Amino acid sequence: MTQLTQSQHDTFKELINIGVGRAANMLNAMVDSRVHLDVPQIFTLNPAELVMQLRRLGGDHVAAVRLTYSGVFSGATSIIFPPESAAKLVKVLVDDPTADDDLNELRVGTLTEVGNVVINGVMGSIANVLNERLHYSLPNFIDDTITELVARNQFEADAIIIMAQAHFNVEALRIDGSIVLWFEVGSLDTLLEAIDALNADLD
Amino acid sequence: MQFQESEQIFTVLDDVPLGCFALSPDYEVIFWNRQLEIWTGVSRDDILNTPIADRYPHLTVPKYTTRLQGVFEGGPPVVFSSQLHHHMIPVPFDDNFRVQHTTVTPVSVPGRDACNALFSIQDVTEISQRIKAYGDMHDQAVAEVQERKKTEEKLRASETELRAMFATMPELILLVDHHSTILRVINPGDFADKLRVEKLVGRTPAEMLSPDMATAATINIQRALASGKANEMEYQGRLRGQDLWLKASFSPIDKQRVVCVIRNVTEDKIAQQQATQLAIERERAELVGDFIQGASHDFRTSLSVMNTNLYLLERSTDDTKRAERRGRLKNQVRHLENLVESLLTIYRWDTTESKLKLGRFQVQSMLHNLEVSFSNHMMGDAVELRFLPTDSALPIHADEQELTHAMRALIENAFNFTEAGTITVSAEAKADELHIIVVDTGLGIPADEYENIFKLFYKVDQARTNQVGGLGLGLSIAQRIIHAHSGHIRVESTPGQGSTFTIILPGAAKP
How many other C-beta atoms can be found within 10 angstroms of the C-beta atom of residue B439? Predict the structure, then answer.
């Protein structure tokens, strides 16, 4: 199992921060509410730890937007919310005063776009480092249990998953979501090499 | 050139149920599918190879371009959802535009770094409307539920207030149905410690009250239901060996149910009885006071006369005058004897059960004895006492001695108030009543004095009495005697012309 050095960890955090920052700017251009997005922590986890960490969001059910990619570098990036938080986020973004918190089809569309903006921001950062074009799937909305969601990725038991905890602050409403990056065997090494090369350049 | 290239790649998209178009990195339209032609009325031929900004300038604002940039660079697809963007290409619908969900994907061009962007537009108008309708319905339902909750809360609050208010009320408040069955105890009132109020529900008056009270309660409940109006009643009964007075009101609240408000008025009743008793005793004390005052006055008057005569007797040497003084002294002694006798008689009538010695005798013989007795008295010549002939066969059932006493009192009273003329005594049967009548031609009595003349020691106007001899007790005694015979004395009088006293004895003349 690959372990991240402190320097790799820091670079990762910075890349994700840059991506999330760009995403926040885009969201602010799209909606009337002021959206603040930050990434306070980055974890490297194995699949079992990921399940445990996700359960801390509250409940066993999650709403997620997932993007898979392949090429020189393969994997998936997901943004994951507890369903009620997801509905609240959508409602405040589109200024919807209705009382129900169901994730209907329109809200799913909106959440998919929000996830799309955040994931694209993060993936843009990473793709920049790799300087390689990847093939991306369409962003996919998933409403499922945490266990099933994690199982979709068909992880090796010792796979390394990078998880960033993101906070959405919209009009005094704080909504926590998790951005989960998973890379296929070998892909992370490719990325870490690229990161090391970047760090070497900077040095 | 560009068009032909694109046409080959994209023409398959003419047959999908999506609006599809493609832009080159410099925002020129390189494909426009059939669905979009139908939606917009803009033909592919017209729009191809023109800048998209010519017809849809909004697509070149930063909100879109910053995100589309990634697509042109071969980055991940971009989504423009319907709630955040409403539509990508305006397609009129009713008063608005069709709602669209758009996905933009990069399409690489061989031999070129930059990608084209393929827009796939899904029409979500109908689903938006359905979701909105559902949302409105949901909100309305939620609003209704909240409204109901508020109403329920208000009701609960007012019920709590009512309960608190009831808790201070002493009344037992019951809700009963048309069978008089207790449905609910609304308030136990003062009865909480006397009755097991929780066990009242389901019971009827017949199971709890005496038959009389139960019947009365049932009738009142039925009456309230039938009339639609409230009614009231009072019950007297006993509970655990003690008197109990209840006041109950029955108010119908609909055709089936009545609210009974039951109040324990025992204490009020006892207080009321005590007050009545107190008033009677006060009146009795006043009467005794008046009696003592009247009797003392009469005794003192006689004693004073006796003293004076005794003084003069002792000093007089004239035999004639001495004889006169002795006569007066004797008169006063007789007067005092009469007074004492009368007082004892009254005491007897007032304190002991009347024990009349009833017997059958002829009225004629009683009147004859009276005539004889009065002829022995010293009467002034100015007043004639006449006894009219009476039916010899007029029998009477009474106490002869007492009735004679009463007659004597009436005749003496007539003498006292008659200076001149006649006093006529007669008797007659009227239906089964016996009337004995004493008519005088005396001073008469004002109508407002009729009642007073029967009071102890009452003297109409001292100045108007014929003689000093009046005790003011005779009529009182006569009335007591006649009342004991279940009869009464009727007074008729014309002041200045005389009075008629009629003793009326019902049933006394029955054979």
Answer: 20
Nearest to B77 among A104, A106, A136 (CB): A136
CB–CB of A120 and B134 under 8 A? no
- The residue with tokens 């109908």 is B126
Which residues in chain A are closer than 8 Å to B110, comparing Cβ atoms? none
CA distance B506 to B487: 6
Q: Which residue has the tokens 């004395």?
A: B489
Give strand ranges (E) for B124-162: none
Q: Cβ separation of A106 and B70 shorter than 8 Å? A: no
**Chain B partners within 8 Å of A121 (Cβ):** none
Residue B118 CB partners (closer than 8 Å, separation 6+): B10, B20, B21, B22, B31, B104, B105, B106, B107
Threshold 0.90, pTM exceeds:
no
Closest to B31 (Cα-Cα) out of B57, B5, B69: B5
Q: Dihedral sign, CA of B60, B63, B64, B67?
A: positive
Count of beta carbons in the 10 Å neighbourhood of residue B430: 10
Are the beta carbons of A100 and B82 separated by less than 8 Å?
Answer: no
CB contact under 8 A, B75 and A119: no
User: Could you tell me where the beta strands, DSSP code E, fall in chain A?
Assistant: 35-45, 61-70, 75-81, 135-136, 140-145, 161-170, 173-183
Residues of B near A (Cβ–Cβ under 8 Å) read: 62-63, 66-67, 70, 74-85, 101, 103, 105, 124, 127-128, 131, 134-136, 138-139, 142
Cα of B126 to nearest chain A Cα, Å: 11
Query: In this predicted complex, what is the ipTM?
Result: 0.89
Find, in chain B, the residue whose alpha carbon is nearest to that of A138.
B77
The number of C-alpha atoms within 13 Å of A109 and in the hemisphere containing its C-beta is 23
CA distances from B355 to B344, B390, B508, B509 (A): 15, 28, 17, 20
What is the rounded CA–CA span in Å between residue B35 and residue B102?
14
Give the helix/strand (H/E) hosting B184.
strand B182-187
pLDDT of residue B466: 43
Residue B377 has a pLDDT of 63
Mean pLDDT across chain A: 83
Closest by Cα among B412, B478, B409, B459 to B293: B459
Q: Which strand (E) or helix (H) includes residue B499?
A: strand B498-506
pLDDT in tens, A68-108: 988 888 888 889 888 878 888 888 888 877 767 778 888 89
| Residue A195 pLDDT | 81
Q: What is the pLDDT of residue B510?
A: 55
Contact A112 B81 (CB under 8 A): yes
Calpha distance B21→B103 (Å, rounded): 11
Residues lower than pLDDT 50 in chain B = 1, 463-468
State how far residue A82 is from chain B, nearest Cα, in angstroms. Answer: 20
Residues of chain A contacting residue B72, judged by C-beta atoms under 8 Å apart: none
> What residues have CB less than 8 Å from B62, skipping those under 6 apart?
A29
Whole-angstrom Cα distance, residue B395 to residue A173?
118
List CB contacts (< 8 A) between A69 and chain B. 76
Q: Which helix (H) or strand (E) holds B119?
A: strand B115-123
Q: Tell me the pairing of strands B421-430 and B383-387.
A: parallel
pLDDT of residue B268: 87
Which residues of chain B make contact with A99, given a CB cutoff of 8 A?
A: 138-139, 142
Contacts of A98 in chain B (CB under 8 A): 135-136, 138-139
DSSP calls for B371-433: HHHHHHS---TTEEEEE----TT-EEEE-HHHHHHHHHHHHHHHHHT-SSEEEEEEEEEETTE
